[in-house]
Write a structure and sequence with these properties.
With 191 residues, the chain is of the alpha+beta class. Helices cover 32% and strands 23% of the residues. The strands form two sheets. A four-stranded antiparallel sheet has the order 3-2-1-5, with helices on one face. It has a four-stranded antiparallel sheet with strand order 4-6-7-8, covered by helices on one side.
């Protein structure tokens, strides 16, 4: 009998074990390590998110321009893209970071007709993102049935959209006079 008790004690089965738990010191060390890890990764995470938001905005704009061009060719009529705060009407003097509206413009008008086909609506950019444009594309972009970017008066329309956020590298969406669109990632620091 003594021998079996000594075996039970040697194997640890003689006394039921208490459930495992953390001591206060172990918990404090774990929290300190988690705090250090969070403090070192947070700036990198914020930079990643800012870069991702710039990329998403530039790709959304390039995609909208490409869709407008292809729809103009497919439908055989003008398709316009314009800045729009409410995504129902073109906003004169509005900035592109407010969002935009893509619509079929059969009447060559400055605003979509009440029965115009709306091809796309883009919401406002994330806070802190700016879109600077040069004059030919500040108010609207219009694609003809041949896919060329032309103003309503027939003048060539080409330009550059510079998408920025403070502390990031600028991204550019470039509209050529042929109507083709490209996106450039620059090493120009945003102001």
């Amino acid at each position: 009998m003594n021998r079996s008790k000594s075996l039970l004690r040697a194997t640890g089965c003689a006394h039921p074990r208490k459930p495992a738990a953390f001591t206060l010191i172990e918990l404090m060390v774990a929290l300190a390590l988690a705090g250090i890890l969070a403090a070192t990764t947070a700036p990198n995470w914020r930079a990643f998110l800012a870069t991702s938001e710039l990329r998403d905005r530039s790709e959304a704009l390039a995609r909208a321009l490409s869709v407008a061009r292809s729809e103009a060719i497919k439908r055989g009529t003008r398709v316009d893209l314009c800045p729009s705060a409410d995504r129902l009407r073109c906003a004169s003097g509005a900035t592109w970071e407010l969002g935009w509206l893509t619509f079929v413009n059969d009447g060559n008008a400055a605003q979509p007709a009440s029965d115009a086909t709306i091809l796309g609506r883009e919401s406002a950019a994330a806070a802190g993102i700016t879109i600077a444009v040069n004059r030919p594309v500040a108010d609207y972009i219009s694609f003809t049935s041949l896919g060329h970017a032309r103003r309503h008066d027939g003048a060539l329309q080409m330009g550059t959209f510079t998408i920025c956020r403070h502390g990031q590298d600028a991204r550019k969406v470039v509209l050529a006079n042929s109507g083709r669109v490209r996106t450039d990632v620059t090493h120009e620091a945003c102001p």
